[in-house]
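Title: Prediction job returns without error message
Component: structure pipeline
Severity: low
Priority: P3
Assignee: unassigned

Description:
Job completed but the reporter wants confirmation the result is attached to the right record. Sequence as submitted:
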Amino acid sequence: MKKSVLSIALALVFGFSATANSPIDGEKKEVNVSESKITWKGYKVTGSHEGTINLKSGHLEMDGNKLTGGEFVVDMTSITNLDMAAGEGKEKLEGHLKSDDFFGVENHPTAKLVITSAESMNKNSYSVKGDLTIKGKTNPVTFVVSIYENKATATLKVDRANYDVRYGSGSFFDNLGDKAIYDEFDLVVDLAL
């Protein structure tokens, strides 16, 4: 009896001391959405277009100085084009990107990225895996995040075919010729923490 009481006491002491030193929840570093910027660039046979999209909310999860997770919500209704002047079809392109041909923002006003793991590459950079949701479809993504003091940067290549963004895609349509739009587009993310 004394032996089992001692075993329980030791288990409780070591169990509590082990959990007391390991954080249950990491520190959340909230992103300053008004100071952060997401730039997109899409490519087609005859050129490219680029613009911005606003971050609605976001945070990084840290264990000390180490990235462990995070979650970001993007306001898809804010998608804009930067390479065309007003009157050159800028509004038409922005409206088309918001339509069901592309991102269907009326039914899917936000996109979401959840970081599921982060592996340190060096002092400031991490190989990150996450789940990206666009138009209600979730797929895994892998990318590099670099964190320097109160800034974080990342570049993602996204295959729109995985999210049912079909317009002008050779993955869904034949004989597009010079009207083809490549499936992969780039997102460059600059976060202010």
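Comment from assignee: result matches the submitted record. The chain is about 15% helix and 50% strand.
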